[in-house]
C-alpha cells in the first residue's frame, strides 16, 4: 500500500527530532561562499549558527510544504521561481505540524537574489533575513543538512548564476601572517606595505568603488572546520586593512575557502609539510571588471 504524500512528509519530519540520529548522517559538506544566483531564480539559504544552543529541530516550510529539519550548525540551500512565497521555521509543531497550515510570512522574492535566513525559534515562524556579510560570518563552520528529503513542490533545481569577470591578485599568506595566525597584529611590515600599495593601485585605476572579494585559503594541516574559520579570519583581517587604506567597506566582501582548493600532496614531518604547502596558504583579492 502506498503512503499518501502528506503521510510521507509527516514521517520524515518526525524523524528529525529523533535523538538517535548520528551527526555524521545528518550533515554533509561544510559551508562555502557561493557565486551569484541565476538571474531567473531566487536562492534561499536557511541556516542555524553553530552557537545556537537549542537542541530541537527547526522544521522549514516553503509555501506550507516541508523542506527540511535544521539542527544546530546546519544549513539548507534551495531555489524558487521569483515571486510571492511563504517561508517559515517552527519548532515543537508536531504532531499537528502547524507550519504547514500557518503561512503568515509571505513576500515577493526577487530574481537573481540570494536571501540568507536564520531559522527563528520563537514559535512565530518568521523568517529572519540577514545581511549577506553577517550571514557569511555566522555560516562559517556550519554543514549542509542532508538527512531528510525536501517535500516542497515550489523548490526547483538551482541553476548556475551568471559568471562575472574579475581580476585576481594573489598574496602569499606567509607574507601576510605567521603560520596558523590570522591576527591583524601579526601582519608583517611587508604585508602592510603590499596591501597599502594594492589599495593605492586600485584607487589610481578608479577601481576602488567596484566590488572587491577577499578570499582566504589554507593548507590542509589541522581540522577542516578550523581551517575554514582560519581562512575567514585572515580574509576579514585583510578587508580591515584595505578599509584602513581608504577603500569603502561596503564594496568589500570577505570569505573563506579553507583547505577546499588544495592541490599539493605533501608528506614528511610537520616542518616539511609546512614548507611544501606554502603555496596553498594564500589570500586572493578579486576585483570585478566593469
Automatic annotation (TrEMBL):
Residues 164-290 form the OmpA-like domain. Its main location: membrane. CDD domains: OmpA_C-like (cd07185). It is found in: Cell outer membrane. Keywords: Cell outer membrane, Membrane, Signal. Residues 1-23 form the signal peptide. Pfam families: OmpA. Coiled coil: none annotated. InterPro entries: Bact_OuterMem_StrucFunc, OMP_bac, OmpA-like, OmpA-like_sf. It comes from the Bacteria. PANTHER family: LIPOPROTEIN YIAD-RELATED (PTHR30329:SF21), STATOR ELEMENT OF FLAGELLAR MOTOR COMPLEX (PTHR30329). This is OmpA-like domain-containing protein. It comes from Pantoea endophytica.
Amino acid at each position: 500500500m502506498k503512503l499518501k504524500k502528506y503521510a510521507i512528509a509527516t514521517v520524515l519530519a518526525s524523524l528529525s527530532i529523533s535523538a538517535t540520529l548520528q551527526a555524521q548522517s545528518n550533515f554533509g559538506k561544510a559551508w562555502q561562499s557561493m557565486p551569484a544566483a541565476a538571474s531567473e531564480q531566487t536562492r534561499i539559504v536557511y541556516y542555524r549558527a553553530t552557537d545556537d544552543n537549542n537542541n530541537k529541530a527547526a522544521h522549514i516550510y516553503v509555501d506550507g510544504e516541508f523542506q527540511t529539519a535544521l539542527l544546530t550548525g546546519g544549513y539548507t540551500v534551495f531555489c524558487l521561481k521569483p515571486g510571492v512565497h511563504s517561508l517559515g521555521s517552527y519548532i515543537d509543531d508536531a504532531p499537528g505540524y502547524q507550519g504547514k497550515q500557518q503561512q503568515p510570512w509571505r513576500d515577493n522574492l526577487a530574481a537573481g537574489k540570494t536571501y540568507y535566513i536564520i531559522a527563528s525559534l520563537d514559535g512565530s515562524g518568521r523568517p529572519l533575513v540577514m545581511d549577506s556579510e553577517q550571514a557569511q560570518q555566522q555560516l562559517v563552520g556550519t554543514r549542509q543538512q542532508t538527512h531528510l528529503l525536501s517535500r516542497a513542490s515550489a523548490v526547483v533545481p538551482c541553476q548556475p548564476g551568471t559568471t562575472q569577470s574579475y581580476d585576481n591578485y594573489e598574496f602569499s599568506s606567509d607574507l601576510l601572517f605567521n603560520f596558523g595566525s590570522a591576527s591583524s597584529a601579526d601582519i608583517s611590515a611587508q604585508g602592510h606595505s603590499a596591501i597599502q600599495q594594492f589599495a593605492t593601485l586600485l584607487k589610481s585605476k578608479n577601481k576602488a568603488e567596484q566590488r572587491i572579494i577577499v578570499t582566504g585559503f589554507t593548507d590542509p594541516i589541522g581540522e577542516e572546520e578550523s581551517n575554514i574559520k582560519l581562512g575567514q579570519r585572515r580574509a576579514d583581517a585583510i578587508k580591515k586593512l584595505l578599509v584602513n587604506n581608504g577603500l569603502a567597506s561596503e564594496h568589500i566582501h570577505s570569505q573563506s575557502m579553507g583547505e577546499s582548493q588544495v592541490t599539493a600532496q605533501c608528506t614528511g614531518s610537520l616542518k616539511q609539510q609546512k614548507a611544501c604547502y606554502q603555496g596553498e596558504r594564500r589570500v586572493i583579492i578579486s576585483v570585478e571588471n566593469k
